[in-house]
Every structure is written in C-alpha cells, then in structure tokens.
Amino acid sequence: MTCTLILTRHAKSAWDSTAPSDHARPLNNRGRHSATALGHWLREMGHLPDQVISSPSQRTRETFERMQLQSPAVFVERLYHASAEIIFQVLSEAERPCTMILGHNPGIGSFARAIAHEVPEHPRFFNYPTGATLVLEFDIARWGDLQWGSGKLVDFAIPRDLLVI
C-alpha cells in the first residue's frame, strides 16, 4: 500500500496588514491568486488529498479555502510555526492515505528536505517559498510507519511557475 503526502507552505501573506497578531495575518492579493492557482494545479495533476491537516493561522486557512479542494480539514495548533519534528509527529497520526499538511517556514521546508529520499531539482526548493507544494509517496500501509528520508518524489511546484504574469 502507498501513502501520499502533499506538503504545502501557505501562500504569500500581507505584512502590511493591520492584523492584531502574526496568527491573524491574512493573505495579500498575490497570495490569494497563488492559492487559487495551486488548487487548480493540484486538481489538474490529480493530487487530491483525502484530508488536510493545517495550522490554524489566518493565512493557512485562507490558502486552504482558496485552493477549493473539497477535502475535510482539521486545524491543529501544533502546526503553527511547527518544527520538522512536530510536523513528523502530526503526520504520523494522520488517518487517510493521501494527506495534505499546510504550514509555515522554516519548519515545513526543513521537514520537506528531511522526509524526502530525493529532492526536486527546482532552484527554489531549498528555501521553500510561499505556496511551495511538494508531493511525495511512501511505501507504507499507514502513516504510523513513516520514516525520515523515505518519501519518493512525485511532484513539486511553486506559484510563480503556475501563474501567468
């Protein structure tokens, strides 16, 4: 059996926002367009998660909403600015074979590098920019069997590659 991970960093947020906290910071206009483009790309490529496990921040919630994936989502406080180790723990508790994790850097980028057996030859992979989305497959029957460095590369995209400018 195979489990599939879709690992997405939230889209570009509005640093000039009047939000009362980092947690409440929304997407900016580019981020909204990027999240929509990511959702279209995921549907076009057939990368449709059975479940989404997301940070509860405003920008991750907006990213999920704009992607229009029609997948059930849970918002987990542990994913707000989570380390790679916390992301690993959260994923190992997932119950569906195709799971999306939606979170923040630097943890999500560190997790992407550590969980993949091979990484994409994309020039932006190592800084995991906003909206970066990695798709990996794992030869495991359940997420509880997850091991570091075991993900097989399926796909990788960033919004800049998807948007027509």
From TrEMBL:
It holds the Pfam family His_Phos_1. CDD domains: HP_PGM_like. It comes from the Bacteria. InterPro entries: His_Pase_superF_clade-1, His_PPase_superfam. This is Histidine phosphatase family protein. It comes from Parasedimentitalea psychrophila.
